[in-house]
Write a structure and sequence with these properties.
single chain; 299 residues; alpha/beta; Rossmann fold; seven-stranded parallel β-sheet; four-stranded mixed β-sheet; 15 strands; 35% helix
Length: 299
């Protein structure tokens, strides 16, 4: 299709991350193509393909002949009810994509597989580094760890980086996720809001920060590595709510709904940035304050 050396293929291009990453890469003069499983979302640069159909995937990859691939397509909601779908999409879909890449690997400079920080699960440390043995405690985390293992079997054949993003968000993120849910309540100036455990600590990074890290990993000489996309900055939901109150000049009565408290919930997820800091430089940390993130939701 194109011999241009800046051709990118994004699976799950119309998802939350895919949309932001597409705009970011286009701003850097890359030609961005995508794969979606929604036929009504297709156009001249977005192709329909079921990632569980290997032959369909092969046709798309052969047509685009990408230099870079971001594999973002996944079931990403931890509480997704269809367990078999989680494993089919997250594990079998990744296997199919990597198999489809083998016929076009002469064009490939980088394949970035998006895993998740949830693979760490419960650990006996507050700071989660890539040196730890993963211990996922839910089906989503287990499926992502299995995806990583599949990816590692291709390390000798394809230029792969596996990333473990910690929580990140921005406007457009689904309201089943906690920050968009809180933002909607404050924007609508609701009186009450039901949440789960307010004393869990998570990173809440900006999408701009994540896209910048992806971009720098994409252009690096690094292969066959697993790396956190993290900032090491964490906040509890109680702290997040206080910032929303301040920025919106509105107060909400927060009620704890036991149905929203996850069993075996990990108390704290803090990502070590030591490895990431060695691999890339000059991360866009200025975009990553929780105040700026919350302000973006309240516009």
């Amino acid at each position: 299709m194109d011999s241009h050396s800046k051709v990118v293929l994004i699976t799950g291009i119309n998802g939350f991350t895919g949309k932001y990453l597409t705009d970011f890469l286009i701003s850097k003069d890359y030609k961005v193509y995508g794969i979606t499983n929604q036929k009504d979302q297709c156009d001249s640069k977005v192709f329909y393909s079921d990632i569980l159909n290997l032959e369909e995937l092969k046709k798309v990859v052969d047509k685009i002949k990408p230099n870079y691939i971001f594999h973002l397509a996944a079931i990403s909601f931890v509480q997704h009810k269809n367990i078999s779908e989680i494993y089919n999409v997250n594990v079998v879909g990744t296997q199919n994509l990597l198999a489809a890449c083998l016929d076009n690997k002469e064009n490939l400079k980088k394949v970035i597989l998006a895993s998740s920080a949830t693979v760490y699960g419960t650990q006996n440390t507050d700071v989660l580094s890539e040196e730890l043995c993963p211990n996922p405690i839910n089906h989503y985390g287990i499926s992502k760890y299995a995806m990583e293992q599949i990816g590692k079997t291709y390390f000798q054949e394809l230029p792969i980086i596996i990333t473990r993003p910690f929580n990140y968000t921005a406007p457009g993120h689904g309201e089943q996720f906690v920050i968009p849910k809180i933002a909607k309540a404050f924007k609508n100036r609701e009186k009450t809001l039901e949440l789960g455990n307010l004393d869990v600590f998570r990173e809440y990074n900006s999408i701009e920060y994540v896209c910048d890290v992806y971009y720098k990993l994409m252009g690096s000489d690094i292969n066959s590595e697993i790396v956190n996309i993290a900032s090491g900055r964490v906040h509890s939901l109680s702290q997040i709510i206080e910032v929303f109150k301040e920025k919106s000049n509105h107060n909400i009565n927060i009620q704890i709904n036991p149905n929203f408290v996850r069993k075996d919930e990990v108390k704290s997820l803090i990502g070590s940035t030591l490895k990431l800091d060695k691999l890339i430089e000059n991360k866009d940390i200025n975009s990553n304050s929780i105040e700026k993130i919350i302000e973006s939701f309240l516009k």
